[in-house]
């Protein structure tokens, strides 16, 4: 084999490798944009449903696509295409309205046109109290972030979606609000950790969330690790991995 043949073979091998990598990156981008996107939970606002250190997949097609479905949110079009409205009770990722570079995750409580209010810790939708039953207490710092026992309630929305909420502090600031009317094309979002969640109850912070800001519906927890450990710290898995949370569907 001549030197030229060897050079051509080496060049072809390198070019093929670059081509394979480029195709893999494009495929990953398509999957991330249109189908699934991984997210990690950075705060305790959705406890006990989601914990810091949970890693989950969000289905991007669930609500259709907006500019925020694309990386960096380029202003290519307005509204949503192939859109589908969220259902009450969905756990959804959305872009924080005052700063769309930030991702938030909360539960969809109010739909367009709904009247939403909190009175003494009880959620009211369109003038009707949402059933709220105390089911006990949790004394597990990994779940509540508290050293003391914390009251746990089960709420059941009008469409039958049921989930647990924490009550860290009775009569906290967010337990009593004015009545909000959700505008057309917007949603009212709340965290399950009611006394430790910046959400739509606070109009000077999150407020109503435009449908354009929805990124997708939280679907399944594929990994979970406690105590602020990194998933790459494999040596901490034996003590910090939350095995019971793996592959759990988000409800």
UniProtKB/TrEMBL annotation:
Highest taxon, organism lineage: Bacteria
Record Pfam families: Peptidase_S26
GO terms under cellular component: membrane
First-level EC class: hydrolase
Keyword Cell inner membrane: no
Bilayer-spanning residue ranges: 20-39
Location(s), subcellular: Membrane
Alphabetical keyword list: Hydrolase, Membrane, Protease, Transmembrane, Transmembrane helix
Protein name: Signal peptidase I
Organism whose genome encodes this protein: Tianweitania sediminis
